[in-house]
Design goal:
The complex is a heterodimer of chains A (about 160) and B (about 425).
Chain A lengths: L5 H10 L2 E5 L8 H11 L3 E5 L7 E2 L2 E2 L16 E4 L6 H12 L6 E4 L6 H9 L3 E3 L4 H8 L18
Parallel strand pairs in A: 1-2, 1-5, 5-6, 6-7
Antiparallel strand pairs in A: 3-4
Helix pairs in contact in A: 1-5, 3-4
Chain B lengths: L7 H7 L26 H8 L14 H14 L3 E5 L2 H9 L8 E5 L4 H8 L8 E5 L4 H6 L5 E7 L11 H11 L3 E4 L4 H4 L9 E5 L13 E5 L12 H4 L10 H5 L3 H14 L5 H11 L2 H20 L4 E4 L10 H7 L7 E6 L2 H11 L4 E2 L9 E3 L11 H7 L5 E5 L5 H15 L2
Parallel strand pairs in B: 2-3, 2-4, 4-5, 5-6, 10-11
Antiparallel strand pairs in B: 1-7, 6-7, 8-9, 9-12, 11-12
Helix pairs in contact in B: 1-3, 3-12, 13-17, 15-17
Classes of the chains: A alpha/beta (about 160), B alpha/beta (about 425).
């Protein structure tokens, strides 16, 4: 598993405001729906990308068919979170760099089980930070106290109130 | 996952705990409540769907119990832990997500007698079965497996003592079979042995013993390493396939490395109900704060008492694996370098009658069916803790009729030796 420091992940999760979620499902028992719902509840703005569901809405946000088709008025996109199999990731990263570099894109996140080192290298060369094989929901829950409620090893040691 | 690796002594005090956010209380409060108020209907729905982690009902999660869970998970190097009502409960909670009717587990012959009974008889009621194997014969472990074998189970330091499992070698066999190794680490504690670092997938404890350390409360815990790929085969459908007991959720896909622990809460505790109460969690947390200090003294005392006994003409043999004479001395040095625990047996000249007289004559040692107390304890295993076993099972487990089991406490070692000396004088004429 790639080792990302808690400091890096905290900064990423604290400064990100808008997340384009590629492959997010509207089925509420799917993991991607879990992640989108959780991040939405925590105050992130979710921009859902799913060609099969385009035109519908998820948590009040319009679903777009592709990254390239996110209208300008949606504004800056800080992060692209990818829920697609690794073989689709190269194309998604290329498209994200082309369409979103001028719109504030800083992070590419690939979900648990999604590992594509070529796409990672492409993103890094374009000046982006990359997280692979992790889940932003789980990392957020771990770093900001929620996983502590259920007995998970958060790695956090602090005597501050 | 952490940026700074902390020392064991720091983690045993701080891991999982923080000043109470409501009051600033520095010690972890005992949250003696059954239920928790939801902010609104959406919050309740998100909690029940496991989309948000929080408190619903204390059968599932409780803030005091959660501190204990995170502390033990951290000390063991796991991703998460589920506490439960006893060590026996922990064993069932560890197997429950893995097993279906018709499945079996490969188990070491060297186990606590109660565990041998649980595995050889009681689990059959669930349609499960166990195959008992000598874990020094690695080929025999592999040979015992069939397509329905779902786990390998052993104790790190085995009860009634004298045996240490070669966890890395057993873990390699389990890995070859594509199934998890479960290690009961009760007698070693994470201070003397960290099974996950040696290749185990799951660790179980009776927290009643050294973790609590003072013989006050019952408890158990299951720690998951987060390292096992539950979806690599079709062997573990409760984790890798849509789980009908949780409206079709696929735990591994949804929670990744945290899947086993979420399953333990959402299905294990929910439906089996073997929950730890917050009072007990509090006592165990108090104990764990001094775990390393106590274990050092337990081990130091055990070595002194075992050495004295071995040199006494009234004693036939001593099984303590920390002794240079033990067949497991090399294993102790390489895999258990901080000590071979504080539980062992010794054979009294005069056999069964002398054993019974000895147990009746000691003054400081307490004659009880427990271990891992600050007080030194003594028991005749064959007639008590290993009583339900056949003679062959007793011998394989190291609990023959002529041996007495000692759980060495943290008293002054010379006082323990004096007590055994006077009792041996009365027992062996």
């Amino acid at each position: 598993m790639n080792n990302y420091t808690d400091k890096f992940l905290r900064e990423l999760l604290s400064t990100t405001k808008t997340i384009a979620m590629v492959g997010v499902s509207v089925n509420e028992m799917r993991p991607s729906y879990f992640v989108a719902r959780y991040l939405n509840l925590k105050g992130y703005r979710i921009v859902p990308i799913n060609p099969g569901q385009a035109g519908k809405t998820l948590f009040g946000q319009m679903i777009y068919p592709s990254i390239s088709e996110i209208p300008e008025e949606v504004g800056p996109i800080d992060m692209v979170d990818i829920f697609r199999r690794a073989e689709h990731v190269d194309q998604i990263v290329d498209e994200a760099i082309t369409a979103l570099s001028a719109r504030g894109l800083r992070y590419i996140w690939m979900q648990i089980g999604v590992i594509n080192e070529d796409a990672e290298a492409t993103a890094v060369a374009a000046g982006l930070d990359v997280v692979m094989n992790r889940c932003p929901k789980i990392e957020h829950q771990r770093l900001f106290g929620e996983l502590r409620k259920a007995g998970f090893n958060t790695g956090i040691i602090s005597s501050r109130l | 996952m952490t940026d700074t690796p902390y020392g064991f002594d720091t983690l045993q005090i701080h891991a999982g705990a923080r000043p109470d956010p409501a009051t600033g209380a520095r010690q972890t409060p005992i949250y003696q409540t059954t239920a928790y108020v939801f902010r609104d209907a959406d919050h309740a729905a998100a909690l029940f769907n496991l989309q948000e982690v929080g408190y619903i009902y204390s059968r599932l999660t409780n803030p005091t119990v959660a501190v204990l869970q995170e502390r033990v998970a951290t000390l063991e190097g796991g991703v998460g832990a589920v506490a439960c009502s006893s060590g026996h409960a922990a064993q069932l909670m560890a197997l429950f997500p893995l097993m279906a009717p018709g499945d079996n587990v490969i188990v070491s012959t060297r186990l606590y007698g109660g565990s041998i009974t649980q595995f050889s008889h009681t689990i059959k009621r669930f349609g499960w079965s166990a195959t008992f194997v000598d874990f020094d014969d690695l080929d025999a472990i592999a040979a015992a497996a069939d397509e329905n074998t779902k786990a390998v189970f052993c104790e790190s330091i085995s009860n009634p003592g004298g045996y240490l499992t070669d966890i890395p070698s057993v873990a390699a066999v389990a890995e070859g079979l594509g199934i998890p190794l479960i290690v009961d680490n009760t007698l070693a504690t994470p201070y003397l042995c960290q099974p996950i670092a040696q290749g185990a997938t799951l660790v179980v404890h009776s927290t009643t013993k050294y973790l609590t350390g003072n013989g006050t409360v019952m408890g158990g815990i299951v720690v998951d390493s987060g390292n096992f790929d539950w979806s690599a085969s079709d062997k573990f459908p409760s984790l890798s396939k849509p789980e009908p007991a949780y409206h079709g959720m696929t735990f591994h896909e949804t929670f990744g490395a945290l899947a086993f622990t979420f399953h333990g809460i959402a299905i294990g505790l929910r439906d089996l109900g073997m929950t730890l109460n917050p009072q007990a969690a509090h006592y165990t947390l108090m104990g764990i704060e001094t775990l390393s200090l106590r274990m050092e003294r337990h081990v130091e005392n055990a070595m002194k008492v075992a050495t004295w006994l071995e040199n006494d003409p009234r004693v036939d043999f001593v099984t303590y694996a920390g002794l240079p004479s033990s067949p497991y001395s090399d294993r102790a040095k390489s895999l258990y370098p901080k000590g071979a625990g504080a539980l062992f047996t010794f054979a009294v000249k005069g056999g069964y009658t002398a054993c019974v007289k000895l147990v009746d004559t000691v003054e400081i040692f307490s004659h009880v069916a427990n271990l891992g107390d600050t007080r030194s304890l003594i028991i005749h295993a064959a007639s008590t803790t290993h009583r339900q076993l056949t003679t062959e099972q007793q011998e394989a487990a190291g609990a023959s009729a002529n041996v007495v089991r000692l759980s060495i406490g943290t008293e002054t070692a010379d006082d323990l030796i004096s007590d055994l000396d006077q009792a041996l004088a009365a027992a062996v004429k």
